[in-house]
Write a structure and sequence with these properties.
The chain contains five helices and nine strands. The N and C termini lie far apart (34 Å). Strands 1, 2, 3, 4, 5, 6, 7, 8 and 9 form a nine-stranded mixed sheet that branches. The protein is an alpha/beta fold and 174 residues long. It has one domain. The radius of gyration is 16 Å and the shape is globular. The N terminus is likely disordered.
């Protein structure tokens, strides 16, 4: 618990420096995401051209980039392995597996009923892959997305991506 609190404090401190150092007129595109059942925020700096893999940090797109929910990340600032450079992974249900099957497995997020979030923790995604519920594609794409605070994401001049996603079909896949 102390590690989580210290990590959150570190994220807030770093994002506050970013807010002070970035002119309000600069504006960036920001998005929400998920890390270990907690909502996070990051800057979308785009694809890193010509780079197919970088470091250990991973970001998981559930059915595609922000297709059904916000993306899920493996590391946050303060943890070994964190970097703002993220290897992209795309998660799809296996043929014949439905969203309801994943819900029944006990691996789905507690946020599903209220927010439609199927996964909010990388460990659950990897366990779902192990159990034969999902497949993870590794397209060889790296994106640059530094994590910031919610206050940083909502700073004047920034453009927040909408948190509106396609709904999962309980009897279908993704």
């Amino acid at each position: 618990m102390l590690k989580k609190i210290m990590t959150i404090m570190f994220i807030v401190a770093i994002s506050q420096v970013w807010i002070v150092a970035t002119p309000a007129s600069a504006g960036v595109v920001t998005a929400n995401g998920w890390y270990e059942e907690e909502e996070i925020y990051y800057i979308l700096n785009g694809v890193e051209e010509g780079i197919t893999e970088r470091g250990r940090n991973q970001i998981y797109f559930i059915g595609g980039d922000r297709a059904f929910q916000a993306n899920v990340v493996l590391f946050i600032p303060g943890e070994p392995g964190y970097s703002p450079h993220w290897n992209v992974n795309i998660v799809h249900s296996l043929p014949g597996i439905t969203v309801q099957d994943i819900l029944d497995s006990g691996l789905a997020s507690e946020h599903f009923d209220e927010e439609g979030v199927l996964f909010d923790d990388v460990e659950d995604i990897l366990e779902a892959e192990f159990m034969g519920l999902v497949h993870i594609d590794h397209p060889g794409v790296v994106v640059h997305c530094p994590i910031i605070s919610e206050k940083g994401a909502e700073a004047p001049g920034n453009n927040e991506l909408p948190e509106i996603f396609a709904e999962f079909d309980l009897n279908g896949g993704f």
